[in-house]
Amino acid sequence: MNQSQQALCAKLRGAFTALITPITEHGDVDYEGFRKLIKFQIDEGIDGLVPLGTTGETPTLEEDEEEKLIKIAVDEVKGRVPLIIGTGSNDTKHMVIYTKRAKDLGADAALVVTPYYNKPNDSGLIKHFEAAAAVGIPIVIYNIASRTGRNIPVPLMKKLAEIPGIIGVKEASGDISQIGDVIREVALPGKGAGKPFAVLSGDDGFTLPLIALGGDGIISVISNLIPKKIAALAKSCLEGNFEEGRRLHYELLPLAKTAFIETNPIPIKAAMNWAGLSAGPTRLPLGPLDAKNEPPLRAVLEQLGFKLK
Questions:
Q1: Distance of CA 37 to CAs 102, 163, 223, Å?
Q2: Are 201 and 171 in contact (CB under 8 A)?
Q3: Which of 59, 116, 57, 106 is nearest to 85 (CA)?
Q4: FRET pair for 16, CA 20 to 30 Å: which of 35, 143, 205, 286?
């Protein structure tokens, strides 16, 4: 790991937002809305931004739309916080193309998800992430078996962490025991050996326990709506102020649960629209929030003090 990668890894602490992609009522990408959301996030004190992930509905975006979104993000962020672009694909060749594009357009790092649907074996996964790292931009692994059908167990994560250019993982396995083992067996020894490896939660409800175990923060969905609160939660926990961290954790836990009452990002986009933030509808095959799920989501938002449309 070179010095610039080490410096970036040191910045992968705190709260990062997995940005939604705003869509107009006519089904087009709302680029001005995207600019406004980035400004809102930075003004509210978020520690980093992660566009073009699952929350950004990347499977439904055209390549020219993605390129324009990356250019806008780079232009708006202006190096003030780390910008990590989702570049995953279930095809290694396309993943490399997307990762090169992110590098060429000025991203700080790329988030590369475990290939979905294919369910690759260990040797295939190692080659896939070697190909990502060979592009020359820092790589954050995204482990989310619920989306991909393939978990990365701890022994394999150890091997992936040894690849030069792999600087961390977004852990969304949903298994706090596995997450703890990744921190204990991969991240902590790596830091001691001068090869930092960041461990960020991919589940909003795990921010406090992950940091308590020695992790680095959260790539959050609900921070699309409440970036200041999520940044404060991560900061409190990272500073060891777990009394304040617990207070924020329990205050925000109902939203962390209800925001996933249906497939992400359906609920968070509905919540943002009600709160007056640029979000718009989801693109098919994701439909609108089911009517039966509106009351519980609205109730949670009202408890947090939102005046809803």
A1: 20, 34, 11
A2: yes
A3: 106
A4: 286
Which of the residues in the chain have pLDDT under 50? none
- Which amino acid, one-letter code, is at 144? I
Residue 170 appears among annotated catalytic residues: yes
- How many Å apart are CA 248 and CA 230, to the nearest integer? 8
Helices (H), 21-61: 31-43
| The pLDDT of residue 1 | 66
Q: Which of 116, 142, 229, 269 is catalytic?
A: 142
Give the alpha-carbon dihedral of 295, 270, 285, 18, to 10 degrees: -130
User: Tell me, what DSSP letter sits at residue 243?
Assistant: H
191 is catalytic: no
Tell me how far apart the terminal alpha carbons of the chain are, to the nearest angstrom: 49
Where are the strands (E) in the chain, listed by range? 14-18, 48-50, 84-86, 109-113, 139-143, 166-171, 198-201, 217-220
What is the C-alpha to C-alpha distance for residues 18 and 22, in angstroms, rounded to an integer? Answer: 13
pLDDT the model gives residue 218: 98
pTM (predicted TM-score): 0.96
The two structure tokens encoding residue 8: 């970036």
Active-site residue among 103, 116, 170, 229? 170
Residues counted in the chain: 309
pLDDT on residue 48: 98
What is the pLDDT, as a whole number, of residue 309? 83
Distance between CA atoms of 62 and 232, rounded to whole angstroms? 35
Give the integer Cα–Cα distance in Å for 118 and 108. 28
